[in-house]
Amino acid sequence: MIGAAVSRTLGSRGLPWVAGLWLVVLALSPLYGDNYIVKIATFVALYGVLALSWNFIGGYAGYPSFATGAFVGLGAYAGAICQNAGVPMIVAWLLAAIIVAGVAAAMGPVILRLRGHYFAIGSISLVEIGSVLASNWSGLTGGGEGLNVRFLPGGPDFIARFFLYAMLVILVAALATTIAVDRGRLGFGLRCIAQNEDAAEMVGVPSTRYKIAAFVLSGVFCGAAGAAYASWVGYIAPADAFSILLTVKVPVMVLLGGAGSVLGPLIGSAALVLLEETVWARFLDYHQAILGAIIVALIFFLPGGLLGLRLRWRS
Amino acid sequence: MKPLLEVEKLSKHFGGVHAVRDVSFTIGSGEIVGLIGPNGAGKTTLVNLLTGVHRPSGGVVRFEGVDVTAQRPHEAARRGLARTFQIVQPFPRMTVLENVAAGALFAGQAGSRAEAERLAAGYLAAVGLDRESQRLAATLTLPSRKRLELAKSLAMRPKLLLLDEVNAGLNTSEIDGALALIRRIAASGITVVLIEHLMKVVLSLSQRVLVLHHGQLLASGAPEAVMRDPQVVEAYLGARFAARFAGGDAKSEASHG
User: Were both Cys, which of A196, B48, B90, B244 would link to B137 (CB 3.0–4.6 Å)?
Assistant: First the structure.
């Protein structure tokens, strides 16, 4: 509904402004809210990054990836290990992004041979592999005991704001990349692949290369965000760094907002995080049941997401 | 005439099924060649081999003198080797204009999406689809989808265009429209290979006809001569009809085996 109303009044030309306005609302949260609100804004930004990332492979290329949890977990561990080895924090985040991009580039040619459900299963196995590696490679990862990351010195206000702006910077980078892809050759080629991969090859789209590019893009910002998350919370363990729930939640956000668009992931991630904070916190026991109900409702009633309502409204 | 496409002893088998067997021919620059054969003769497999969809089991394909046997479909497209699909393959949730722009951008000459859309509008006008340019491809009728398929391949600026049954499923007047269109395409300097079922199309357009049967090249030559070839008649209509058709030549027909 939000997306529909926004799109109707602004048309597609106005969409970047909506995104810009939303960034300002998040950035100004320390002015109108306490640290709890700032924390929520940081989570909105974090999930915005993950949703925009998934959108490259799941939205534009149409490949239902469940690798988000693997990218985030790998980024968190890579960042934490680098930081504990004495690498400055921001450099550690960049390194984490590069490492995740490298792993995505190496794994892409293997699992992108699969299509549809097979690809989904292949990608979800990456999360499990990551979790098993983190649990068992104790010398590097601390095993099941997890890994402590040095806290950033400073008061709670400073820390809350620092990580809000850190996440927002990553969000802006992911958003800028999305807009560039959406308007450029890559985005057009990926849309062709999503709609008919054989025909895409036949008009000259190098589909393998484009899919790998989309997969790497879907990993790189997750890697940075995962590393920043590890620095923020100060402690990571295998089960919550490589999270199956996260890997499912992020695609749901994008589908809720509208896959394959610039604004859809932002709307969907914001809607779900805010829902989670306001409503679900009061129904702790039914938390995941509600997520399940949303997935089912999405499939049946909103195949195009909230933004898709606009098309229906017109026709 | 310089050969544009050279095919040498091309074979493809799927397990024990020999879909294409030792097929050799050349296509000269500027020719219009018909490729005919009964159902299951291997016509579409042959097209798939020429455009990189399938990897040949044996043999060589050369395009402009370059060995392209191992190419991928997008490489074929960029080389100027375009095809249409027997079963049309539009991008369903894109507009007609975007469909054609994809061809212009990824295989044609467009440097940007804006330029691709500008060029695409021209190709849509050429096939008579300009009024549908903003519709979603999925909403087009079959004849319009065939035209879209043509516009898309034209936007790729091909040197050789393989038309795989572009006329299948069209009625008589639609076919006449399509024939005029193919003539214009050929006149613009594009070499055309027509993969066809419909004799009318092949006879009225082709300068030369290749006949494929059971994956092998059965005959090749001028359309009238090929149509009178008893082997070809037999492949299409069976031995008894061929014997009657050939009249006094019934004995020689037996020797073809």
Answer: B90
